[in-house]
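Workshop exercise sheet. Pairs work together: one partner reads the sequence aloud, the other fills in the structure field after running the prediction. Swap roles for the next sheet.
Pair: D.N. / O.F.
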Amino acid sequence: MIDTRVHANGPATLPRGHRWVVVDVETSGLRSNAHRVLSVAALALREDGSVEREFSTLVNADCDPGPVHIHNLTRERLADAPRFTDIAGDLADILDGGTLVAHNASFDYGFLDAEFRRAGRSIPTSQRLCTLALSRRLELDVPNYQLATLARHWQVQQLQAHDAYDDARVLSEVFVRSATMAESLQLPLPVVNCRSRKSVYPDSVQRVPCQWKNPGRLTEAGLVQGMKVVISGSTDTPRLTLSGRMTEAGLDVLNSASRQTSVVVCNDTGVQTAKVRKAMAEGIPVITEQQLEALLERVVPGEPKVATVIDIVPQQETPVTATPTPEPQSWTLQGQKPKLWSGRRVLLLGGTHLEAVMMRSRIAQLGARPSLNFTAAVTDALLLEGADADKRILRVNDRRLPVLTADDVNAAIEKGVVPPHMRTESRLTAPVLSQGEVIDLPAKTTQWSVNVAWKAEAGGDEFDVDVVAFLLDGSERVDTDADFVFYNNPVYDDGVVELTMDGSSEQSIRLDLAAIPNECERIAIAAAIDGDRTFGDLGAVSVSVDSEAGTAATAVLDAGTTERTMVLAEIYRRSGKWRLRAVGQGYDDDLAALAVRYGVEVEESD
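Structure field:
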C-alpha cells in the first residue's frame, strides 16, 4: 500500500490552468434556499500552495443563527458584522475566475450562490473541486472523510473547528497535499462545472419549505396552512406569481400530485393532464383559479411542525476538543465470516472486457475490492494479457506492488489459497458486495451517502453520466414525479434525498432514512449514460455506501455491455430495518424509458 503521507512535508506544485480559491462557510442551517451564510473565508493559493490573498468576515444575516453550539456564532457576535451585500464585491473579487475548493463543495457553493443572488449578483466562479470527492478518489486509508480526520491524516494542526477562517486554512493544506498525491498517482483532479445543465423538462415551481403540518384534503372548512397544493394547466395569473401568493399564505406548493396532495388547481379539467388524472383517481378535490382566489382570502392557521435540533452540519468536521472521531465500523454479510482477501484493493490491468468482468467478480467473491484507478489504497495488481500496454504498469513497477495472475485468483476461489507474494496486511474494511448480495444497514445510523464513481480517466465530455434515485411504493412505482431525483430535480422534500455532483466521475445520492415517508418502501439508485455510449464503453462502476462513521458496504458493477441505463443498488425496508442490495441490472434504453418503467410521467408538461 502507498504511504499516503509521503508528500506531507515535501515541495508542492498545484496543477496549472486553475486559480485555486479555498472556501469555507458557516451557516444558520442546511438549506441554502431558507438558511443564511453567517461567516465566510476565502484563500487564493499560489502555485506552490501558499496563500496569495485572503478574505474572511462574519456576516449579519439578521436571522436565527441556528446551531450556535456548533459554530458559536450568536446574534450578539453577528450584530455589528456587515451584511452580505456589503461584502459581496470584495468576495467576488477574490473568487473571480477561480476554481472554488471546499469540503463538500456543493454545500458551500450552493450557499454562496444563493447569497449572491439575493444581493442581485452572480457568483463569479464557474468551476469547483470537492475535497471529499478528491479524498475518495485517492482512497486514503482513513476511517471517514471528515475534515478533522483528514487533518490528522495529513498532520495538519486544526486550531478552531467550525471557524470559517481556520477551516479554510486547514483545508488549503489538506488540498495541497491531496493534489500533490494525485499528481504522483497521475490521477486527474475531480473538477466540475458549477453551471446547471440545460433541462429538457419544463420550468417548475421552486419548492419552498413549509413550516406547517399537512392537515389533509381540502374540505368545506376551506384552506388550512400546510395543505399541499398543485397547479395544473394554464392560469390567468402567472404560475410563479400565483404559487408565491399561496406560499406566503402558508400553503405547500408542489409540482406533482400524489396521494398526499390536498387540492389541485385547474381551470379546465377537460384537458385531462396527468395531475388531473391523478386527482380523479385518488379522489383529490380539483378547484378553479377563481375558487382558489376566494379561498385565499381566509386561510385557517395550521399546526406547526415540531422543530428539530440540528446537531451536525453535513460533512463538517468534529471539534478537536469534542468527542473523539468514532472508530471505523466494519460490517460483515449476515452469517458469513470475513472473506479470504478482505481488506485488499486489487487493480486489474489488461484483458478483454469479458475477462475483466469475470476477474472483478471473482476478486469481489474473495472479499477484495476491485480498484478502478491507481489509488493510494491499491495493494496488489492483477495482470492479464495486454497489461504491459497500460500506462499504469509503470506506476505498478515503481511502487513495487505485488503482481497477481488469473491463476492466483482461480486458486484462491477453488482452494482457498493466498499467494505467498501477496502482502499479508489487511486493513479494516467494509464488505464488498457481489451482484445480488444484501446487507442490513445499522439502525442507529440514518444519514447515508450512496457514492457512485467510475474510472477517473473516463470523466469529461466523452461520457455524460447521470446518477438518479426513485422513491418507490409497494408496487415499485413512484407516487409522484417529485419522487424521481435527478439533475433537474436534485432535492426531494427539503433535502431528505439529494443528488450532488461531487466530481468529474463522482456523484452522490444523500439520504436521511429517518425522514423517508412511510409509503416509500424502496429507493432505487440508478445511472444513465446520455447519447450513444454504453456501460461497456464506460467500464466498471463503483458504489460505496457511507455514513460519518465510515463505509457500510461497497460494490463494483461492471457486467454492462450494450446497456445505457443501469440500476446500481436498492435500499429497502424489511421487518422494520433498512437493507442494502447491490443490483447491477442494465437496460439498453435511455433514462426517460427507465423513468417511465418506474411510473414517472416524462412526456407531458402541464
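Discussion prompt: Residues 1-9, 197-203, 307-335 have pLDDT under 50 and may be disordered. What would you look at next?
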